[in-house]
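Supplementary Methods. Inverse-folding protocol.

Structures were first reduced to a discrete structure-token string of length 781. This string, shown here, constituted the complete conditioning input.
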């Protein structure tokens, strides 16, 4: 097994059949009653609600409006075959949608201040609807159809919560039948798809299933089920080395191959936070010491991928294709989960988390976390009153286990999305994100003061063959190219990752293009003021052009940001195009400066386009609206031509730089491109040398004995060298640094060194390192 559990798989299998587990304590009925009251209070916010507060009043208004809308669709006929007229029970996901509405109605009935609080007519409607659902379809013996999630998670969670909210109003015999239905669809939360395709549940799915069973157990005072489901949570916060779950470097993977911190990851965090809070102080409190891994994940996995309350799109998978789930929406959910979890950790840690979230909320200029918020979310945001907001931190986080990297400096973040045999280019499924195939081809995301860059209809309107940062074969691809559910992965590429040292990074991707023979070597070297992008070995044989996209910026509905190239205004009007030869620098107003670097053979002609693009959410999601949307874009790219052979490029991006600063960078000789070939890519600047060796070789004073990534940093007599194996396949890697007179001061575990007449030979045991860097500190003279 990939992860440790408190119950062995054989125990879980036996439990799935009998569920006659020994009880953990002699719990009293009062203990279950207390937890029912606690869960109901969490759903309604009735312990904290202030109906006079405008934000709480607005939240009450929203739930009342939703209930009023549902009541207009309610079929009350004695021969009804459905509950809501727009939710036919013969079509998925109507069963789940029906229970979600019933939970919302039950919540309003239970919430002080709601217009429906304790309303007899509403209660009668909900009780009748619950009985109809059990009689018509959601009962023991029904065979699932459509998406398994709708039956096992989408329906079970709201049904269980509805029973808790209306516990004293539902006859005991009816509660037993409804619980039997849940037991039929989820006989054991450790598994999905019973009985024919029974598979171990993992990650967010495990948490959702355990939540359903824990809350369902409260309805029948079933301690065995509660304990079994509680112990199943432990599996989700163990570190893994393959497949679904948390990795030591902060990566979170779901569906085996997909970087998913931003959706499944925050669903997991939110669900666990609720359940830890529910069980705290009860006979069933979670005491697993490994839960600290979950707490550590906030700083390692979640804080790095949220910027100014935007959940970065490179960890949101197919959710980018959903019109009702922007990067801000997922950022709000993550912030809510972190605030909820803060209630169960020590005061100092909770204060850091609250300060980070307060900073996000303050800097969110595109949306408002209270807009559309539930009552519990309103209460959590209100709890930030008086908290000092934290700034976004500087630094670099390399998620080697999910082929993602994010570089942060004051006011901006630069995220890089890659793919390898370990991680999919993209995920399509359920009619979502069928055209996302190039997002893993080195797409770069610049998060800056434009807080709505990706939330403002970017995905349905952007040219999906010209995503920023990518090197793309223009070979037309069919929808779902490469397969669904993470099946679209490179067949051979393994050198993806890099090295990090003191907030600097050398990141690289051996790009094997999706469904295309095109290959390229791409590197990003991340400094304080800018990111250097090098490409080499760009070769294609598909009969189509290959392009590298420098920038493709969403200018929103009416943006007129100026493009200046080498001092001249270019493409000022919509529809304008330009080819600029021997270009030295470019500047996009309000976005960044771009400097084109001297490198043998590198492309020096930049193409520019200002255009209005129209698309719809239906184009990228079968459940989306077909309504046309138009946004303006400013695009810069290199055209490497049809079937290029060993083409290359070299440029830097300076986010937020002025025109004047961009010109200065273009004139500066401080930054040097040391190499840009299919064998090695390297740059040097102010005592820093960053290099990606695709094969053994040398650059400057560094001689690599294996494919590796390295950063050398010299400050006076002190030198630090960070090494990594991005392939994650080697047992050892080696490097010789020609530094006469150097002696080793300190070395990480697994590092051995040998002094030579020319300097130091460094050998690193990288078994188990999973692409992480190992550091050696030297002193010369």
């Amino acid at each position: 097994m990939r992860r440790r559990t408190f119950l062995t798989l054989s125990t879980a299998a036996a439990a799935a059949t009998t569920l006659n587990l020994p009880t953990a304590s002699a719990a009293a009925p009062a203990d279950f009653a207390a937890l029912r009251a606690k869960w109901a209070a969490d759903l309604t916010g009735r312990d904290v609600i202030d109906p006079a507060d405008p934000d709480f009043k607005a939240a009450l208004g929203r739930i009342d409006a939703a209930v009023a809308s549902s009541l207009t669709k309610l079929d009350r006929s004695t021969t009804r075959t459905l509950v809501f007229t727009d939710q036919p029970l013969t079509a998925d996901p109507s069963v789940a949608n029906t229970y979600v509405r019933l939970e919302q109605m039950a919540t309003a009935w239970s919430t002080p201040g709601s217009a429906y609080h304790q309303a007899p007519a509403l209660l009668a409607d909900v009780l009748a609807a619950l009985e109809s659902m059990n009689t018509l379809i959601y009962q023991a013996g029904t065979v699932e159809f459509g998406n398994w999630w709708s039956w096992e998670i989408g329906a079970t969670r709201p049904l269980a919560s509805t029973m808790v909210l209306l516990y004293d109003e539902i006859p005991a015999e009816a509660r037993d039948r409804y619980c039997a239905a849940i037991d039929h669809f989820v006989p054991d939360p450790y598994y999905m798809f019973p009985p024919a395709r029974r598979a171990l549940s993992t990650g967010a799915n495990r948490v959702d299933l355990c939540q359903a069973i824990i809350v369902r157990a409260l309805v029948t005072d079933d301690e065995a089920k509660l304990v079994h489901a509680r112990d199943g949570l432990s599996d989700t916060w163990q570190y893994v080395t393959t497949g679904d779950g948390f990795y030591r470097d902060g990566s979170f993977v779901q569906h085996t191959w997909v970087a998913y911190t931003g959706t499944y990851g925050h669903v997991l965090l939110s669900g666990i936070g609720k359940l830890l809070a529910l069980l705290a102080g009860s006979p069933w409190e979670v005491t697993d010491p490994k839960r600290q891994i979950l707490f550590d994940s906030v700083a390692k996995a979640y804080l790095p991928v949220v910027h100014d309350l935007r959940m970065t799109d490179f960890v949101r998978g197919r959710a980018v294709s959903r019109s009702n789930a922007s990067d801000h929406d997922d950022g709000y959910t993550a912030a809510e989960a972190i605030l909820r979890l803060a209630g169960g950790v020590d005061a100092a840690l909770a204060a850091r988390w609250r300060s980070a979230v307060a900073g996000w909320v303050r800097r969110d200029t595109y949306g408002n976390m209270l807009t559309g918020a539930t009552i519990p979310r309103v209460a959590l945001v209100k709890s930030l009153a008086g908290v000092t907001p934290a700034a976004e931190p500087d630094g670099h986080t390399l998620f080697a286990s999910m082929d993602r990297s994010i570089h942060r400096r004051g006011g901006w973040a630069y995220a890089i999305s890659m793919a390898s045999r370990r991680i999919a280019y993209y995920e399509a499924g359920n009619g979502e994100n069928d055209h996302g195939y190039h997002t893993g081809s080195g797409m770069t995301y610049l998060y800056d003061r434009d807080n709505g860059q990706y939330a403002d209809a970017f995905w349905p309107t952007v040219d999906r063959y010209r995503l920023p940062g990518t090197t793309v074969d223009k070979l037309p691809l069919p929808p779902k190219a490469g397969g669904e559910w993470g099946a679209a992965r490179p067949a051979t590429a393994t050198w993806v990752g890099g090295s990090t040292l003191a907030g600097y990074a050398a990141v690289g991707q051996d790009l094997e293009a999706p469904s295309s023979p095109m290959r390229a070597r791409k590197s990003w070297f991340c400094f304080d003021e800018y990111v250097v992008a090098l490409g080499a070995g760009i070769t294609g044989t598909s009969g189509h052009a290959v392009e590298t996209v420098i920038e493709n910026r969403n200018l929103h509905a009416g943006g007129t940001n100026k493009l200046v190239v080498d001092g001249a205004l270019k493409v000022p009007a919509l529809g304008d195009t330009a080819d600029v030869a021997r270009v030295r620098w470019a500047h996009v107003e309000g976005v960044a400066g771009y400097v084109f670097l001297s490198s043998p053979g590198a492309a020096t002609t930049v193409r520019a386009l200002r255009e209005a693009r129209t698309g719809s959410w239906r184009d990228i999601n079968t459940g989306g609206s077909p309504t046309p949307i138009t946004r303006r874009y400013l695009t810069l790219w290199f055209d490497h031509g049809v079937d290029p052979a060993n083409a290359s490029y070299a440029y830097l991006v300076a986010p937020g730089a002025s025109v004047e600063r961009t010109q200065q960078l273009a004139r500066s000789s401080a930054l040097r491109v040391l190499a840009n070939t299919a064998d090695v890519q390297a740059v040097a600047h102010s005592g820093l040398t960053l290099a990606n060796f695709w094969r053994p070789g040398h650059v400057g004073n560094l001689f690599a004995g294996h494919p590796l990534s390295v950063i050398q940093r010299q400050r006076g007599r002190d030198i630090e060298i960070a090494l990594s194996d991005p392939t994650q396949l080697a047992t050892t890697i080696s490097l010789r640094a020609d530094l006469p007179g150097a002696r080793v001061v300190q070395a990480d575990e697994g590092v051995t060194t040998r002094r030579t007449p020319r300097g130091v030979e460094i050998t690193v045991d990288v078994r188990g390192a999973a692409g992480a860097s190992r550091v050696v500190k030297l002193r010369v003279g």
